[in-house]
Amino acid sequence: MIDVLVVDDDFRVAEINAKYVGKVPGFRVAARAHSAAQALAAVERTPVDLVLVDHYLPDRTGLELVHAMRERGHRTDIIMITAASDVDTVRAAMRLGALHYLVKPFTFTALRSRLDSYAALRRTVDRVGGRGLTGQDQVDRIFGALRTLAAPAPPGLPSGHSEPTTDLICAVLHRADHPLSAHEVAAETGLSRSTAQRYLRHLEQAGRLHLSLKYGDTGRPEHRYAWVTP
């Protein structure tokens, strides 16, 4: 599991963000904080993998919080979630090593896509790190993982399709490092193969998935689906 610290001065917003995080497979909220001081105390008390940081905090800015964390030796990964959208703040966040910058207001899908790409980054680093970097291709894989963001959701779903099921299938495909068949998607999600196939066909027709064919011994090609990256 990826442990997350949610930092936002607004208690209601922090609660919403925490609920969003809890809905993404593989992530859990380890703590919440509503000020920079609380956030620093939280990371000292409970090591976390990722911090979702608001810029506007009551005692210091989110960027000042990140700087203080770095000074104390905390290399926790950072995603900025804030209404601050000026170039100077965005540039400063990049220089401090923020992996993503999400501007309020945002949707659950927008946050989920950032979390999914972060999880993909961790998996890529783990795979490459186990054998050491061997060339530009491995470096490109690491940097490319963060650019794997979800495409905008289509305007409406066909009859019989639900948004939670669509999100579940999208998350599985988004995390995968190779094209998946309907059978594999069904196994990952717990859905029936026919249901997975129906959703996959719709997502492919909507332009969110790329369809490829894999030929086996039987001569009948297997449909395999991959996420369409920008």
Task: Spell out the key features of this protein.
alpha/beta; 230 residues; elongated; single chain; 47% helix; 5-stranded parallel β-sheet; 3-stranded antiparallel β-sheet; 19% strand; 9 helices
**Rounded radius of gyration (Å):** 19 Å
Number of E-type strands: 8
Number of helices: 9
- Beta fraction of the residues? 15-25%
The stretches of 5 or more residues where confidence is low (pLDDT under 50) are 148-155
For the largest beta-sheet, the strand count, sense and barrel status come to: 5 strands, parallel
Helix content: 40-55%
Gross morphology: elongated
Indicate the structural class.
alpha/beta
User: pLDDT average, as an integer?
Assistant: 85
Strand order of the largest sheet: 2-1-3-4-5
Termini gap: 27 Å
Q: List SSEs in N-to-C order.
A: EHEHEHEHEHHHEHHEE
How would you describe what is shown here?
The structure is a single chain. Helix content is 47%, strand content 19%. It is of the alpha/beta class and 230 residues long. A hairpin with a 5-residue loop joins strand 7 (209-215) and strand 8 (221-227). Mean pLDDT is 85; it is low at 148-155.
